[in-house]
Design a protein that fits this description.
binds magnesium ion; alpha/beta; metal-binding; two-stranded antiparallel sheet; single chain; DNA polymerase, domain 1; binds 2-phosphoglycolic acid; 2 domains; 13% strand; Rossmann fold
Length: 223
């Protein structure tokens, strides 16, 4: 069986990070004298990176958009100060990463979260050792759904069939535009029904991911 390059999204895929993202956004709002937003609203704003999330929060709460850069920096500072107070890996994630690594697959990350908090979360949750590369939303000049961050990390890791594992419409579009096969984790922060999101594979339980990767590799060989 050949080895695969398995690239993971972060928010809503490996980790349930929305509660800490919400806490950071709500601290910023509180400082502006504005009531905080609820978790479903914040989840609906996740996917296109932190600057976009702050833009959506500001639009929803009527803040002056000329302050976007300032309030993005404020929110990021709050977030960097507490990235894993409430954030945990989804059940089975650590075991799946262990099994995939042990099988010889090369693992990496392509997230729209800024690179610094993405790396500190991997360290705090003690899963950094599994990742051979991390591309964040601010690593390159472009972010997902532009295909370049995903193609960049795959090029960096060398040859081999590649699979992108993510939870969102943005991830699916990125994979389509990059020409990379996509496995959709259905329990993250997607906004549309599973059928409306282009994917080659889907799963709801991380304990099934190592088997899914083996099947995906076999399919790739026969096509
Ligand atoms: O930061 C975001 O908006 C989304 O992050 P993700 O790409 O890891 O899902
Ligand atoms: Mg995601």
């Amino acid at each position: 069986m050949p080895m695969a390059i398995v690239v993971f999204d972060l928010d809503g895929t490996l980790i349930d990070s929305a509660p800490d993202i919400r806490a950071a956004a709500n601290k910023m709002l509180c400082e502006q004298g504005i009531a905080g937003l609820d978790l479903p609203t914040i989840i609906s704003f996740i996917g296109n990176g932190l600057p976009k999330l702050v833009e959506r929060v500001m639009q929803r709460t009527g803040l002056d958009m000329s302050r976007h850069s300032e309030l993005t920096a404020v929110t990021l500072a709050h977030y960097n100060a507490a990235t894993t107070d409430l954030t945990r890996p989804y059940p089975g994630v650590v075991q799946a990463l262990e099994a995939l690594s042990a099988a010889g697959h090369v693992l990496a990350m392509c997230t729209n979260k800024p690179e610094e908090p993405a790396r500190s979360i991997l360290r705090d949750l003690r899963i950094e050792r599994f990742f051979n590369g991390v591309v964040g939303g601010d690593t390159l000049a472009v972010k997902k759904p532009d295909p370049e961050p995903l193609l960049h990390i795959i090029r960096h890791l060398g040859e081999g069939p590649a699979l992108y594992v993510g939870d969102s419409e943005v991830d699916a579009e990125t994979a389509v535009r990059a020409g990379v096969r996509f496995a959709l984790f259905t329990e993250g922060y997607r906004k549309s029904p599973v059928e409306a999101i282009p994917h080659q594979h889907q799963f709801s339980d991380f304990t099934t991911l190592p088997g899914l990767v083996e099947r995906a590799l076999r399919e790739e060989q026969t096509c």
